Amino acid sequence: MRGSRICGERLARQRYGAAGSALIGGMLALIASGCGKGGAAMDAATPVDVGTGGDAIDLGGGVHSRCPTDLAGPELVRVGWAGGVAFCIDSTEVTNAHYQKFLMAPPPPPGPRCQWNTALAPSTTAPGCQATFDPIGRPDHPVVCVDWCDAEAYCRWAGKHLCRAGSLDGADPGPVVHPVAADGSEWIIACSNDHATAYPYANAPEAGRCVDKKFLAATPGVQPVKTASTCVGGVAGLYDMSGNASEWQNNCADAKASIDGKEDSCDAYGGAQSSDYVDTSCLAATSATDIAAHFTRAQIAADNGFRCCADAVFF
Prior knowledge:
Elements: H1 4-17, H2 20-33, E1 65-66, E2 76-81, E3 84-90, H3 96-104, H4 148-157, E4 161-162, H5 186-191, E5 246-253, E6 265-269, E7 295-296, E8 304-305, E9 308-311, E10 313-314
Parallel strand pairs: 5-8
Antiparallel strand pairs: 1-10, 2-3, 3-9, 4-9, 5-6, 6-7
Helix pairs in contact: 1-2
């Protein structure tokens, strides 16, 4: 296979260091100028890794990718999409057991808008949060009652990142090849299988299929991950993208009046156990530039948690 390993590595490096539009240019340049064995030009028909689903894909040209298996937190699943390079997302929401391991490790430094966030433990004083964090008695429940800065710090500690979206002005290209696309959100792409369905499992909503207001449970509230065993998708192996706990996104709008970042608006997608089932759509989320986001950066809710995304490994 002509230079497939070298090409794959170069494409991966471009992904990390360039904006989405530059990535497209880089891919075209590789095809045009050559990335083959002994300097031979790469065949113009050789595809790049933009396949659909699966953990490791060979698209004929020998360009492979898979999800890392050595990172903390839930197992990752691979997401291929038509608009760019494959990425990975946690198969479930981060659980109490996962988060406890984070709390036992040396804390990472706070992010630029999170200098005020000196405590990373879930709240036990916010409404509904008195008994939610119990790593022993509730290890498989999603960790909730965490603010945006807690979620971002965990993902960074785990070697991942809070799922991103590209901004319309291109200032924050995020993971997307087309940073001007309003739908360039890792979370939405994964949930909808690259916009193939409106809900993770189908185009039409089904009451109680996921952990929503209609879900039948022995105890009310947020449930252990994978409790709703048919709430799977958009890609194979991905659970609870609708309902259970809504999920923080790295899609924020800085509040001009907020010097420290506490009042910045940040999105949380997917709906929760308290949501009507019709409101748990993959696409029932604000766009990358919508400042009327669901929460402030410092806000706490008893059914709001998160999962992380990660870069695929190319080989």
